Amino acid sequence: MIQPLDLAICALYVTGIVTIGLWSGIRHRKKHAGGNTAGEYFLAGKTLKWPMIGLALFATNISCVHLVSLAQSGFDTGLLNGNFEWMAAFTLVLLALFFAPFYIRSGVTTLPDFLEQRYDRACRDWLAIVSVVSAIIIHIAFSLLAGGIVLHTLFGVDMYTSVIVISLLTAVYTIVGGLTAVVVTESVQTIVLLAGAIIISIAAWNRMGGWAPMVQVLEAQHALDKLSMLRPAGDGSGMPWYAVFLGYPVLGIWYWCADQTIVQRVLGAKDEDHARVGALFCGFIKILPVFIFVLPGLFAYTLSKAGLLDISALRMVDAAGREVVNSKGIYTVMITQLLPGGLTGIVAAALLSGLMSQVSGALNAIATLCSYDIYKRYRPYASGTKLVKAGRVSATAALLLSLALMPLLNSYESIFNGLNDVIAHIAPPITCVFLLGIFWKKASARSARLTLWIGSALGTVVFAVNKLFPHTPAGHIPFMMMAFYLFCTCIALQVIFTICYPDPPAAGRKVLYWASPREPLQSPGWKGIGNYKLLSLVLLAVMALLFWWFH
């Protein structure tokens, strides 16, 4: 339980964020009164610059799920799940080099809008529905679940009550202020979140006495493999090195390059260069989570083994009658035992930052999708004011549905693994149609439509079978490899269907794909250190060095 001082810090922080969100959103709307009402609300009038884009991308990605579950994964498996953070940098390079300039030049408002222009209306409808559902489950419900666990442990209040209060406060400034409010608050929240994570990392480092004592404890426990991010074939974690390099791109391209909740920040960019550099800026920030989110969990493991951290409150008896550690609560144990008063409140505020930024970003994306891709289809001449109203109603409904899903998702032992397990079965067909749509001019509308339908149905069936019959051969396939197999199946389907059902020649289609991978790189970009090509090379070199060091 945290002290009154810490509670006051949290209350002031939440009040401040809600105030900033409302003020920035209303101020932006008044400043641009008389302009494109819907464009200002959903895409901030396309005025976002690279620092805000990068910080907002990171804030939307990092939520309570990451703070809580990456610490849990660090406790359970060491640095292994840091792969999800560092592999993201490679995907963000793809976003910066190939996807972002395409979206900016095409002038699309949503990613389903792109699918309609590239393929047909049916593809747009399907992606809009899948994107809304995935935003509700992945970006909101899982975040609320992780946030509820933390708030219950810290404040001693009912998990659902605390989450409902925080999510409703977040919804107020998100629904009123639109993307401007979301991005401004996310920029603030990213700084607070990073500060809180750094504080807990330093506290764990100091309690352990540094790196060498941690390594000594791991040696004594025969657990030095926890320091390795690239595991050999047959590793008990179910995530060997080849699964990381084959499976993650399928998940990552969908998440970072084709998911409305994430890409909406890029769509609101002032211009192509701001979009590119903002994505790369986020790639550099993504280096930090391994050290400030995952590593503290590993420190918690060694601290508990050395008798320097009391985890008795986390011990429980499983269904087989064995005593196990419920590591979901390890982050809150670290907060309450490693930090003095005042600092506890700051870290708790950081956790609230993660929860609020994730929920606000997802609600804004849902509002945009429902307005432009669903409501406007049946009301094509609807005014900007009516589009905004439809978006606000849909965001409210999505939040209520997410709250209702929390008990179901709480059945996963690891929140992070549960999150990625869901993504692994959603992403393959979407990643497929986006990649082929942008890089292969022959990819036909009917092939994309059939691939989305069949691929999504196949992913759903495989997911259901694995959950209902976990002891079948398919049930033992790691979710990363399952994503890769499903992706390969979708590629084969779209290629075959394109051959069988080619598109008729159509004028104007050329703008909807790159003639070659070199085409998007012809833009010179900014001069000097801010050049997107230079930044991409530097980021790739840094990531290669880090993977070599922690292999």
What fraction strand?
under 5%
Overall pLDDT score: 83
End-to-end gap: 39 Å
Number of helices: 20
Number of strand elements: 2
**Overall CATH class:** Mainly Alpha
The global form is globular
CATH superfamily: Sodium/glucose cotransporter
The helix/strand series, from N terminus to C terminus, equals: HHHHHHHHHHHHHEEHHHHHHH
SS class? mainly alpha
Q: Largest sheet at a glance? A: 2 strands, antiparallel
Unreliable stretches, pLDDT < 50, 5 or more residues?
Answer: none
Query: What number of domains?
Result: 1
CATH architecture: Up-down Bundle
Helical proportion? over 70%
Strand neighbour order, sheet with most strands: 1-2
Instruction: Supply Rg.
Output: 23 Å
Protein name: SSS family solute:Na+ symporter
Transmembrane segments: 6-26, 52-72, 84-104, 125-151, 163-184, 191-208, 239-257, 277-301, 346-372, 393-410, 422-440, 452-469, 481-501, 532-550
Subcellular location: Membrane
Family: Belongs to the sodium:solute symporter (SSF) (TC 2.A.21) family.
Model description:
The chain is an all-alpha fold. The mean pLDDT is 83. The longest helix is centred in the N-terminal third of the chain and has 50 residues, at 159-208. It is globular, with a radius of gyration of 23 Å. It has a single domain, classed as Sodium/glucose cotransporter (Up-down Bundle). It is built from 20 helices and two strands. The chain starts with a helix and ends with a helix. It has helices at residues 4-31, 37-43, 50-61, 64-77, 83-106, 111-118, 121-155, 159-208, 211-220, 241-257, 260-267, 272-285, 288-305, 330-338, 343-378, 384-409, 415-439, 445-468, 479-500, 532-549, and strands at residues 315-317, 323-325. It has a two-stranded antiparallel sheet. Belongs to the sodium:solute symporter (SSF) (TC 2.A.21) family. The chain crosses the membrane at residues 6-26, 52-72, 84-104, 125-151, 163-184, 191-208, 239-257, 277-301, 346-372, 393-410, 422-440, 452-469, 481-501, 532-550.
